[in-house]
Amino acid sequence: MARTDSMIWFLFGFAQLIIADVFSDAAMLTILEHFFNISGGGSLMVGLYVLLFMAKHSQDFADVYSKFEKSEVIRKPDGNLEFVDGDSAVIKGASVVLPAILTIIAAITWLATV
């Protein structure tokens, strides 16, 4: 989850920096350009913090976090209930890979306009 959350912050930051670059062409919108540059850089720092903090403390959160939220209850043939993880490997992988790809595209777009 930490990687996905930090990627979303990175996407948000790069989007603000790209918007600031659009505003740099209009002289009247200089205040908005500065605002988006500052807030976009701040969002990138929050994304970096979330990535590093959650990576450092991931074991602590894994021990405390209840896995029953995404679990499915299945009745076995003998009548007992069994909890099965509801997330497949494809969904877990896609929830990390898609934001990563979008973040890379946003970073390249922003770097191309600087």
Short description:
The protein has 114 residues and is mainly alpha-helical. The chain has helices at residues 2-23, 30-56, 58-64, 89-113, and strands at 71-75, 81-85.
What would the keywords be for this entry?
114 residues, mainly alpha, two-stranded antiparallel sheet, elongated
Strand order of the largest sheet: 1-2
Low-confidence stretches: none
* Share of helical residues: over 70%
Mean pLDDT: 79
**Global morphology:** elongated
Report the strand count: 2
The DSSP helix count reads 4
- The rounded distance between the terminal residues' Cα atoms is 31 Å
Secondary-structure element sequence?
A: HHHEEH
For the sheet with most strands, the description reads: 2 strands, antiparallel
Instruction: Note the beta-strand portion.
Output: 5-15%
**Given the helix and strand composition, which structural class is it?**
mainly alpha
Rg over CA atoms, rounded to whole Å, is 20 Å
Report on this structure:
It is built from four helices and two strands. It has 114 residues and is mainly alpha-helical. The longest helix is centred in the middle third of the chain and has 27 residues. A two-stranded antiparallel ribbon has the order 1-2.
